[in-house]
Amino acid sequence: MASRRQADRRRLGAGLWHGGRMLSGAGALGVLAGSVAPWVQLSLFGIPLAAPGVLFAGAWSAAAGLIGLSVLRRAPFVVAVAGLVALGVGMSQGKPAVQAVSRQILSLRMRLMPVNARLEQVRLSPIEPFGEVSHAEPGPGPAWVALGGAVLLLGGVAAGLGERWRRSCPQCRLVWSDERLPTLLHCPGCGLRRTSARQCQNCWHVAEKSDKHCAHCGEAL
Ligand SMILES: [Zn+2]
Ligand SMILES: [Zn+2]
After folding, report:
1. Is 182 helix (H, G, I), strand (E, B) or coil?
2. Is-contact 27 151, C-beta < 8 A?
3. Using CB atoms within 10 A of its CB, is residue 14 exposed (0-12), middle (13-18) or buried (19+)?
4. Under a CB-based contact definition with an 8 Å cutoff, are residues 13 and 166 in contact?
5. CA of 36 to the centre of ligand 2 (A)
6. 185: helix, coil or strand?
7. In the chain, where the domains are located
8. Which ligand has the minimum distance to the alpha carbon of residue 172?
């Protein structure tokens, strides 16, 4: 009974860990893509232009995405926090970026006003760098960042929980360290005997069910 529980917990933990890592990787890539994707779109002298998110608050989400990619193995819960940051940035910072650019456009138009008034006096066409439309359009970047951040958050939490379940005591919840995990016979916290794993009689390395030889020392099992 206890051995079934240990094995189930380990298997579920391993599944969560692997699935969480894959999710996090995809989420981090989504966040990075969203950070360099257009956040603000406008046209300058008729040429369509796009400003990437990293010019605005997208720099934060880009950093969060990089953290998500780099520390996943060591600190899955840090990855979850990075996902939360990206989600927040993606959901809240799209509009301010568009507003900031719109303000710049407006102020440039104001400064061109006297020049254009002069041009009109001598019957020349006015300078309209941004065409008829005086405001900037939002781009798809923030939505990608928010979606990627949500996936990154989910993956980080799953990987972190999985990692804990995979190597913690099912009875007292003590987390067994990576170094001790392969040779542990009893839980150092509560004395529970580890019965789920086959162990090498030579080096006590824990073997998988299908192993015919010890993966650590080669002894036949
Ligand atoms: Zn224990
Ligand atoms: Zn061995």
Report:
1. helix
2. yes
3. middle
4. yes
5. 50
6. coil
7. 2-166, 176-221
8. 1
Q: What is the DSSP string of 4-63?
A: HHHHHHHHHHHHHHHHHHHHHHHHHHHHHHHHHSEEEEEEETTEEEEEEGGGTTHHHHHH
φ, ψ for residue 191, nearest 5 deg: 85, 0
Dihedral Cα 205, 211, 212, 217, nearest 10 deg: -30
Q: Which residue has the tokens 């990154």?
A: 152
Q: Which ligand sits closest to the CA of 198?
A: 2
Please report, in tens digits, the pLDDT of each residue of the chain (221 residues total): 566 777 777 788 888 999 999 999 999 999 999 999 999 998 888 888 899 999 999 999 999 999 999 988 788 999 999 999 999 999 999 999 999 998 988 898 889 999 999 999 999 888 888 876 667 899 999 999 999 999 999 999 999 999 888 778 878 888 888 777 767 778 889 988 876 566 776 766 777 778 888 888 888 87
Query: Are 149 and 24 a contacting pair, CB within 8 Å?
Result: no
Q: What count of other Cβ atoms lies within 10 Å of the Cβ of residue 209?
A: 8
Residues 49 and 67: their CA atoms lie apart, in Å, by 29
Ligand that comes closest to the CA of residue 203: 2
